[in-house]
Amino acid sequence: MMNFITTPLIVGIVFAGIYGLSELFLRRKERMAIIEKLSDKQGMSSLEDKLHLSAYSPCFSFSSLKIGCLLSGLGLGMLVGFIMNTLFVLNGTDDWYRNEMAGTAYGASVLLFGGIGLIVAFVIELKMGKK
């Protein structure tokens, strides 16, 4: 049924992959050329003095906190969507109406509580950053 779209789609994916790989290697060559020009003009010791690489302390990543808060928010959203589904949607008479309202309840709850979870992770990250 959808055979007319597969050929252009595959050709597009192949060309996008080839373009992406060639762009990746060309950028690498350009970056290496810029680094060589910088090293020719200045010594590496003066470059290290300008960057002060040893002065930077390692940064903590809060990705696990973000993922944890997001997943807990999604789980809470699924629970609230289920509760809303059982309380409000099951009383509808039309089968199509029940399916639409159940999908809306689940989707809205998951997105709302997932966003709240990310906001909580951001607030926790700000409080830990101040310490």
UniProtKB/TrEMBL annotation:
The keyword Calcium does not apply. It comes from the Bacteria. Residues 10-125 form the DUF6249 domain. It holds the Pfam family DUF6249. The keyword Membrane applies. Keywords: Membrane, Transmembrane, Transmembrane helix. The chain crosses the membrane at residues 6-26, 67-90, 102-124. This is DUF6249 domain-containing protein. It comes from Parabacteroides chinchillae.
